[in-house]
């Protein structure tokens, strides 16, 4: 078994985190940052950065404009108050999270860009606000979010509940859209880093070197804004801005693991299992229960001087002890593919796995399909263990051509240790010639399905709300001890549509013109030609004879 | 022969059908939609004749005129001046002066001990309308005006590349005061010595020069108005100074975003606190309230950590301090600007005011002007962008202080500089009063009424000039490129811009300054909206040659037989006529 090491080197003074990461004396905002490193069973390294800015203020207060910013980025604050946003979640992801190999991520995201926003219930023109908001956000993040319009926006009725304070249930104020084709690159990372109070100059963000981050198997960056409680009593509101960045590095690719963290490392929480040996050892161990699994984490608190020792630097070494047996299989897993042949019809298969040995649990499946795949909803079948499985709740909103996509939401009960298959047939529409994308033969993307579920937990989840919980375990509020919330995204689909020859319009014009011209020509000829009795000309023999006769001076033949 | 005749008629009939039905049908179905535009009115606007009317009231207090002279009051006088700025732009100033004697209440007000109090109580008596000027002539012996020795702040501008340095240097004058200009729209004028034997006409003409000086100080000067026309007129006749003023001021816009940023490059050693909310409330907001008729303002602030200037300051041994020379200031802004962040929520121009606290290793830091002197305010500004102030904190703590040091920033000092810079950016022109003039400092409002009037005058003229240029160039463009679709909403915007422009010009003529500005703002908004409408671009790149290339397979086979047979018919007809002529001969 290959021995890999992860080397970090700290050179930055810890007191700057003191400025940057701790509560400002006498002020009401707070910044916290955290890096979780989880060695994956596949041999990769999963690094999850979380940066949280908490601000005890209310953007949506009547008559009072928030305009003086300290740690919270001004550009986002202005957007929140201008568009009356209650909650905003945006993610940019390059690559696909392999749930079966890597387990559950701390914060899931679909490939491409995803944006979902809850508007405040005082907004009268939600669609107008949404359109403007996407334009502004595409400017802030340098992304093509401006391609979000009514044709790819849906209003899920149950799958996306607000994660923050306030239990709004009226899904008229929710908008959800994905752009599966969006490519994420450094130009998106730079504006994302700019939103951090210290930019990339201090704290964990100095590790975010784009040439390393994008040389990885999976990269996902996200911004989540929501109102949360200020304290346990929840007497007043605070706004939380959570910026997350998840990367999976492949250690087997030449020297990757070493390079990525060479410059310096901040570890708030490093995780060890029994598979690994960690040096230097840290005196701080903490247990956290996240995603139904209790684990022990070694914590390096970088605001404390003793973490760094004499050298004021931190080198971290992980040694693989050997192949450590089976990975805990994720309890919920989903995949999706297109079946069928030809360019006329097809079938979407969504397969959801429940790997729990003895517990059945319900899942919410949400599918948003573009209008040019015309779903035959009567062919919808749900089968588990080769038996029909009737969904207890179906919300279906049919598409309108060129106006809105299909939305299908179903609540399906998954039997224990089973595979449930959802199939629906569709017909491919023929688009207008201006509606095709610049590279139509590449195919058209259909965004990921979303499976949301409360999965029964193996261990008791802690439901109490405390400030000192590590960030990675506090994103989704836990409501009950026996289960935890999981969202799984399937692969996006790539569907070929019948694609015409694009020189066709010109050919058609030319052909039609020629046909018309030929018809017109004969018609014109027929109408204007005059018939006159003409003297028949002499046959060739007679004309030759006449020629000779003329020379000879003999009377000509007629 | 009848057969031949029939063929000829058939060819003619087909040609007629093609011409009468076919071509109009094709024309109609392929034409672009072009709504009607008021081209004639737009071309009228192209040659702009502006008339600016000012109401002047000259009030004589007791003791300035003899009773005999007073008998002839009230009396009025109109004075007009014409300037042709260029071939298409003319200016006419109409000064309507009314003379009267002071009422009893005004006399009481003028008996106050100081000029400032007199100014206030005169303001309480009657509020003069926007754009007008009231001049009180007081006796020569009056003690209202300060006699000698007053201090005034004079701004020196040093002009170099794009950056200018402001220095606030107290200057001391020893001079007799002739005119006192108050915070409102009134001025007190010490009457020159009149001879009692003069008749009224002589008295008034004697006064004229002074009144004119007062009016050009308080209302508008010709140079400022010409500078405001810079969008239309090539700047040749304008003095360097008013050109600099108009270049420094940010362009007229319906709204402005003012952003204050605190740059803390060294949070390890300095923990900075600024009470920006309170400072904005007490220093900036009064000025913005006063400027509300001109534009909407919104104020933001932010703190940027680890934001550094683009240049490394040089250490100067002689003063044991770091210095930034005036030449390097132009390199300071760009690296900082990337951190400032654009304003996401609106598209109004942004005015940036940065407070830079140098890090512990580079302080104190001083800005030096071109003559290598330290700038007392330690600040500079960049035209149409904003200002930067360097705030040294190294004296506030000793070497053994525990890092980070908590530092409270003195906002009064900072805001004083930013306020001065903001006035410059907004185009509150710095007036150079003639000798003997005392300008009352604007007080807590940050802006005197007459300064606002000056701004209104030049802004109205600037708006009218900009809107008329926009609308004429749009009309020109639409006229030249026949492919552009003109939708109804664009036509509507253009018409409303034209009407607003006409009303603005008319209101300016009538002397209603507030309405003129209002209409000119509407005109600018409508004209910009029409000019930048995306629908204008839709068919712009569909050139005629390509369009006809597509039609050729149809047009060529259709037209050739028609043209040929027509030619044949014509030649036959000619031949026949020639035959006939030959026969008749």
UniProtKB/TrEMBL annotation, chain A:
Alphabetical list of Pfam families matching this protein: Gpi16
One GO BP annotation of this record: attachment of GPI anchor to protein
Top-level taxon: Eukaryota
Coiled-coil intervals, chain numbering: none
Gene Ontology cellular component annotations, sorted alphabetically: GPI-anchor transamidase complex
Signal peptide: none
Name listed for the protein in its UniProt record: Phosphatidylinositol glycan anchor biosynthesis, class T
Organism this protein belongs to: Cyprinus carpio
Lineage of origin: Eukaryota, Metazoa, Chordata, Craniata, Vertebrata
UniProtKB/TrEMBL annotation, chain B:
Principal subcellular localization: endoplasmic reticulum
InterPro entries tied to this protein: PtdIno-glycan_biosynth_class_S (IPR019540)
Family per similarity comment: Belongs to the PIGS family.
Assigned GO CC terms: GPI-anchor transamidase complex
GO BP annotations, alphabetical order: attachment of GPI anchor to protein; GPI anchor biosynthetic process
Presence of the UniProt keyword Endoplasmic reticulum in the record: yes
Compartments (UniProt record): Endoplasmic reticulum membrane
Lineage, opening ranks: Eukaryota, Metazoa, Chordata, Craniata, Vertebrata
Membrane topology (UniProt): Multi-pass membrane protein
Segments crossing the lipid bilayer: 9-27, 548-567
Keywords (A to Z) from UniProt: Endoplasmic reticulum, Glycoprotein, GPI-anchor biosynthesis, Membrane, Transmembrane, Transmembrane helix
Pathway: Glycolipid biosynthesis; glycosylphosphatidylinositol-anchor biosynthesis
Name of the protein described by the UniProt record: Phosphatidylinositol glycan anchor biosynthesis, class S
Source species of the chain: Cyprinus carpio (Common carp)
Top-level taxon of the source organism: Eukaryota
């Amino acid at each position: 078994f290959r021995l890999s090491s992860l080397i970090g080197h700290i050179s930055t003074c810890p007191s700057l985190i003191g400025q940057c990461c701790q509560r400002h004396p006498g002020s009401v905002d707070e910044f916290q940052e955290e890096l979780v490193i989880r060695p994956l069973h596949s041999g990769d390294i999963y690094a999850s950065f979380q940066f949280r800015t908490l601000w005890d203020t209310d953007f949506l207060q009547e008559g009072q404009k928030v305009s003086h910013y300290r740690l919270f980025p001004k550009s986002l604050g202005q957007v929140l108050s201008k568009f009356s946003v209650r909650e905003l979640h945006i993610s940019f992801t390059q690559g696909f999270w392999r749930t079966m190999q890597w387990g559950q991520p701390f914060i899931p995201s679909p490939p491409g860009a995803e944006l979902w926003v809850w508007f405040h219930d005082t907004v009268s023109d939600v669609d107008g606000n949404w359109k403007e908001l996407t334009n502004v956000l595409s400017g802030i993040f340098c992304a093509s979010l401006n391609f979000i319009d009514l044709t790819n926006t849906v209003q899920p009725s149950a799958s996306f509940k607000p994660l923050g304070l306030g239990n709004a249930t009226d899904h008229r104020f929710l908008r959800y859209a994905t752009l599966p084709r969006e490519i994420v690159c450094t130009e998106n990372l730079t504006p994302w880093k700019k939103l951090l109070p210290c930019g990339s100059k201090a704290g964990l963000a100095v590790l975010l070197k784009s040439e390393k981050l994008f040389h990885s198997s999976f990269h996902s960056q996200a911004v989540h804004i929501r109102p949360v409680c200020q304290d346990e009593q929840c007497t007043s509101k605070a706004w939380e801005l959570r910026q997350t960045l998840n990367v999976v590095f492949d250690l087997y690719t030449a020297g990757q693991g070493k390079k990525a963290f060479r410059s310096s490392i901040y570890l708030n929480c490093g995780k060890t299992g029994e598979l690994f040996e960690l040096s230097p050892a840290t005196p701080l161990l903490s247990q956290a229960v996240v995603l139904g699994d209790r684990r022990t984490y070694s914590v390096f608190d970088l605001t404390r001087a003793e973490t760094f020792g004499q050298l004021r630097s931190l080198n971290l070494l992980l040694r693989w002890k050997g192949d450590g047996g089976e990975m805990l299989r994720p309890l919920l897993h989903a995949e999706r593919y297109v079946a069928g042949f030809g360019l006329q019809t097809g079938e979407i298969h969504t397969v959801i796995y429940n790997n729990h040995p003895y517990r059945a649990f319900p899942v919410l499946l949400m599918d948003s399909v573009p209008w040019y795949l015309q779903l035959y909803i009567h062919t919808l079948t749900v089968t588990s263990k080769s038996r029909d499985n009737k969904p207890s709740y179906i919300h279906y909103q049919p598409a309108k051509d060129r106006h809105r996509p299909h939305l299908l939401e179903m609540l399906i009960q998954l039997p224990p240790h089973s595979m449930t298959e959802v199939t629906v047939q569709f017909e491919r529409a023929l688009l207008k010639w201006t509606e095709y994308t610049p590279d139509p033969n590449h195919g058209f993307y259909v965004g990921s399905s979303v499976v949301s579920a409360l999965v029964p937990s193996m261990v008791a989840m802690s439901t109490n709300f405390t400030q000192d919980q590590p960030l990675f375990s506090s994103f989704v509020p836990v409501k009950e001890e026996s289960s935890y919330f999981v969202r799984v995204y399937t692969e996006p689909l790539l569907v070929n549509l019948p694609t015409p020859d694009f020189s066709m319009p010109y050919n058609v014009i030319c052909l039609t013109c020629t046909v018309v011209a030929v018809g017109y020509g004969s018609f014109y000829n027929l109408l204007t030609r005059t018939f006159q009795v003409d003297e028949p000309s002499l046959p060739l023999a007679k004309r030759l004879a006449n020629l000779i006769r003329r020379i000879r001076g003999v009377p000509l033949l007629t | 022969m009848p057969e031949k005749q029939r063929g000829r008629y058939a060819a003619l009939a087909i040609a007629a059908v093609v011409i009468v039905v076919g071509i109009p049908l094709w024309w109609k179905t392929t034409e672009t939609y072009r709504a009607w535009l008021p081209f004639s009115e737009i071309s009228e606007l192209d040659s702009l004749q502006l008339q600016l009317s000012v109401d002047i009231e000259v009030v004589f207090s007791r003791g300035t005129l003899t009773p005999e002279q007073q008998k002839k009051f009230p009396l009025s006088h109109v004075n007009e001046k014409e300037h042709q700025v260029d071939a298409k732009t003319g200016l006419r100033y109409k000064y309507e002066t009314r003379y009267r004697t002071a009422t009893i209440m005004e006399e009481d007000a003028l008996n106050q001990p100081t000029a400032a109090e007199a100014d206030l109580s005169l303001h309480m008596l009657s509020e003069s309308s926007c754009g007008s000027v009231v001049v009180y002539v007081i006796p020569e012996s009056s003690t209202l005006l300060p006699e000698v020795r007053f201090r005034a702040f004079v701004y020196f501008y040093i002009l170099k590349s794009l950056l200018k340095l402001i220095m606030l240097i107290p200057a001391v004058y020893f001079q007799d005061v002739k005119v006192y200009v108050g915070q409102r729209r009134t001025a007190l004028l010490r009457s020159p010595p009149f001879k009692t034997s003069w008749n009224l006409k002589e008295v008034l003409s004697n006064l004229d020069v002074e009144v004119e000086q007062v009016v050009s100080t308080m209302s508008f000067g010709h140079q400022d108005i010409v500078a405001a026309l810079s969008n239309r007129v090539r700047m040749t006749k304008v003095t360097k100074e008013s050109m600099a003023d108009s270049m420094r001021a940010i362009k007229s816009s319906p709204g402005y975003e003012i952003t204050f940023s605190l740059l803390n490059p060294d949070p390890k050693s300095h923990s900075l606190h600024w009470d920006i909310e309170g400072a904005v409330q007490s220093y900036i907001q009064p000025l913005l309230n006063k400027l509300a008729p001109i534009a909407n303002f919104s104020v933001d602030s932010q703190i940027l950590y680890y934001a550094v200037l683009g240049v490394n300051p040089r250490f100067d041994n002689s003063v044991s301090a770091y210095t930034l020379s005036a030449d390097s200031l132009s390199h300071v802004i760009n690296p900082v600007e990337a951190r400032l962040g654009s304003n996401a929520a609106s598209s109004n121009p942004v005015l940036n005011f940065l407070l830079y606290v140098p890090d512990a290793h580079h302080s104190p830091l001083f800005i030096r002007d071109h003559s290598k002197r330290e700038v007392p305010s330690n600040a500079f500004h960049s035209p149409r962008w904003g200002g930067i102030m360097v705030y040294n904190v190294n004296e506030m703590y000793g070497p053994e202080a525990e890092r980070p040091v908590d530092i409270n920033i003195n906002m009064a000092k900072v805001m004083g500089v930013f306020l001065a810079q903001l006035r410059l950016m907004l185009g509150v022109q710095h007036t150079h009063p003639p000798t003997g003039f005392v300008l009352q400092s604007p007080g807590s409002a940050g802006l005197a009424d007459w300064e606002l009037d000056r701004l209104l005058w030049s802004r109205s003229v600037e708006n009218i000039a900009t809107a008329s240029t926009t609308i004429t160039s749009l009309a020109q463009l639409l006229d030249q490129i026949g492919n552009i679709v003109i939708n109804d909403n664009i036509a509507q915007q253009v018409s409303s811009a034209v009407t607003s422009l006409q009303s603005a010009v008319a209101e300016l003529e009538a002397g209603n300054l507030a309405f003129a500005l209002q209409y000119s703002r509407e005109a600018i908004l409508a004209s910009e909206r029409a000019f930048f409408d995306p629908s204008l671009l839709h068919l712009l790149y569909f050139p005629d040659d390509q369009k006809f290339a597509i039609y050729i397979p149809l047009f060529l086979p259709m037209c050739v037989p028609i043209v040929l047979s027509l030619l044949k018919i014509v030649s036959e007809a000619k031949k026949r006529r020639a035959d006939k002529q030959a026969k008749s001969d």
